[in-house]
Amino acid sequence: ENSVDEWNAVFPNTPLLSKQGDKQPPYVFVWKTWGKYWQVCDGPSSSLTIGTDDVPLGSYVMDVVIYHYRQKDKFIPIGYASTQFSITDQIPFAVSLTQVNDKDEGDQKFIQNRAVAFSITLHDPSQYLSKSDVIFNWNFGDGSGTVISRELTVTHTYIAAGAYKPQVVVQAAIPDSSCATPPNLPTGARPTTNTLTSESPIRPTEDITT
């Protein structure tokens, strides 16, 4: 229950604070979401990383209360904050448009027969997609066809004046560690009566989930 007494220097999930060298940590950050607590001892700033395995998709609230260490076993609450975050199975991203060599990028008006740069910014603070193959499928809305790219920025030139509605679809092929090829075992551990040879090495296909 969200009550004043709940935040009154009670740390239910962890033992008493550990020392940092010969000094007690100056601040204690108590994070709360999903009915769980995380206690972080840190300096003037702090961060928390939590797993999202088996967490249903949706919007959640994260609360944090900051305590200041004053004396032995004495912690004074000095701040409180709350923010909302979402768990999604899609890739959050933003697209920005600029015309190459445009003197006024803020007007969002573009001249025909001059290249327009489309730049994508992926929201991936945990680097979950760092080893993934991310592909961008562009349709610039002028009947010129589809452009498939792995680059975060592409350019396109509109040869006729008008209003267009460009679209992009982002896809990520994420390696599945459970499908990785097991390492070769020593020959003595797997004896066989027949030996198979081939003229060229066989390369197993990599299984991925999308």
Automatic annotation (TrEMBL):
Q: Where is this region: Disordered?
A: 179-210
Q: Does the keyword DNA repair apply?
A: no
Transmembrane region(s): none
Write out the biased-composition intervals (Polar residues). 190-200
Q: Which Gene3D superfamilies does this chain map to?
A: Immunoglobulins
Q: Does the keyword Signal apply?
A: yes
Q: Which UniProt keywords apply?
A: Glycoprotein, Signal
Tell me which residues make up the PKD domain.
Answer: 130-170
Q: Which family does it belong to?
A: Belongs to the PMEL/NMB family.
Q: What is this protein called?
A: PKD domain-containing protein
